[in-house]
Amino acid sequence: MSLVIPEVELTAEGREAVEEFDDRTMNPGLRCVPNSAPLLMIDPDVKRIEVSEELIVIESASGMARREIHMSADDHEGALSSVQGHSIGRWEDDTLVIETRRFVDHSMGNGYAGIPSGPRKHLIERLALDEDGKSLTYAFELRDPDFLAQPVAAEVTWAHRPDLILSTAECSLDNARRFRN
User: Fold this and answer.
1) How do the domains of the chain map onto residue ranges?
2) What's the pLDDT at 6?
């Protein structure tokens, strides 16, 4: 996987949250809460993507996370908020375009360094199989006016390895907290 991490400009609230963030006590993984997209999508792990006409499911070995992309929804009206938000997908030729809103507060929802996210977080993603058939390109644009002073955009190349099997295990609070010190 290759990733270029863009420079992230934070709001005053974002800067304050990063300064106060203590990974040993505030990391959501300590409570078995997975990373939210887009961090979940750039975590270097195995992902399984199941495609149907109505629903696309992306599962990640990282934190046993599961995303559902609703292919027949037109808006987010009435959708529940969650760590992964509510995702609506559409096809533009061979590219899956995902628009996600309705995220819950997350202490690392916009960055590994403790950049939080909130309910105004808005994510647009594009996922496309590359011409060689051996890689996927994942691109995103992230907006969260409470914590990000500017939109953040990045692109990651995934190795397309349909031969790998997703291996998951239930998160154990004891194991999750084992390495905090």
Assistant:
1) 2-161
2) 62
- The token pair at 152 is 């953040």
Model pLDDT for residues 131-141, shown as the tens digit of each residue: 988 899 999 99
Q: By C-alpha distance, which of 116, 152, 144 is closest to 23?
A: 116
Of 136, 134, 110, the residue nearest 123 (C-alpha): 110
Options 1.10.760, 2.40.128, 2.60.40, 1.20.140; CATH for 2-161 is: 2.40.128
Closest CA to 88 of 78, 104, 103, 101: 101
Q: What is the pLDDT of residue 153?
A: 94
* Encoded tokens for 81: 């908020």
More confident residue, 172 or 63: 172
CA-CA distance, 123 to 98, in Å (whole number)? 8
DSSP 8-state assignment for residue 9: P
d(CA 147, CA 151): 10
Q: What pTM, to 2 d.p., does this model score?
A: 0.90
